[in-house]
Amino acid sequence: MKAKNRKEKQSIGRRIWRWTKRIFLILFLAQLLYIVVLKWIYPPVTLTQLSSWISGDGLKRDYVSGKNISPNLKLAVIASEDQIFPDHSGFDWKNIKKAMEYNQKKPNRIRGASTISQQVAKNVFLWQGRDWLRKGLEIYFTKMIEWIWGKQRILDVYLNVIETGKGIYGAEAASQTYFGKPAKALSRREAAMIAACLPNPKVFTVKPPHRQVLQRSAWVMGQMSFLEKDEDVQRVISEP
Fold first, then answer.
1. Transmembrane segments in this chain: where (predicted)?
2. What would the pLDDT profile of 33-60 be if each residue is shown by its tens digit?
3. Which of 199, 194, 166 is closest to 181 using CA atoms?
4. Alpha carbon distance 139, 121 (integer Å)
5. Tens of pLDDT along 164-221?
6. Are 61 and 173 in contact (CB under 8 A)?
7. Which pTM was predicted?
8. How far apart are CA 71 and CA 77, in angstroms?
């Protein structure tokens, strides 16, 4: 009797293990297919956008292709957020090390070091937060989009999903809301102001212009003048 019960338990355990493997395989293939599909289409909705809508902040967005976004804005976000974006493979290890050292010294003032690729991985596939599970998944998705999408597509998606104000997402919605014009018509100064708000768009408002946005946008414009001479940067911000 005991031997029979033992065999039944082993059989149940094997069935559970088989179904667990099947579920993980299905989930893996599903997310891989989703990553591949997003190389050509934009995400229907992200968890961050959904959270914004549920919380009452609203959801204003208008996806546009890269050719309908001003090169000024592409250059501005690289200057502001990730100046070695064309060169790294998803991570700025030098900046990550500096951020870790800073956060150890000042744990109450967390400093980020996410690249544009990491921000896209977080905003498109994951939730907001700093837990280790999300960070681990962020590394995985960052490597996958670097491998499957390439730099131009990553920048394109970034400029369509990034939060640019309370309930405002993407370049087109920001441009229409703040300047009453399409994203492809943004001037250098306007692009720099949008890029300057990105570290904390709900606090660093573009309209009315927050003091931090005015100060940082001047710095961003200076960095744009320096970076626009870089051939790798030009290759990323230019449409094929």
1. 23-42
2. 999 999 999 999 999 999 999 998 889 9
3. 194
4. 8
5. 999 999 999 999 999 999 999 999 999 999 999 998 999 999 999 999 999 999 999 9
6. yes
7. 0.87
8. 10
Q: Which residues of 175-205 are buried (b: 16+ CB within 10 A; e: fewer)?
A: beebbeebbbebebebbbbbbbbbeebeebb
**Tokens 């094997």 appear where?**
14
Q: How far apart are CA 139 and CA 155, in angstroms?
A: 17
Which of 177, 165, 172, 181 has the alpha carbon at shortest distance from 64? 172
Residue of 96, 82, 62 lying closest to 183 (CA atoms): 62
Instruction: Quickly tell me which residue has 């370049």 as its tokens.
Output: 171
In one-letter notation, the amino acid at residue 189 is: R
CATH classification code of 43-238: 1.10.3810.10
Q: Which residue has the tokens 């909705």?
A: 45
Select from 88, 55, 74 the least CA-distant residue to 157: 74
Domains in the chain: boundaries: 1-41, 43-238
Nearest in space to 75 (alpha carbons), one of 212, 197, 232: 232
**Residue 154 CB partners (closer than 8 Å, separation 6+):** 116, 117, 120, 145, 146
What radius of gyration do the chain's Cα atoms show?
Answer: 21
For tokens 């250098």, the residue is: 188
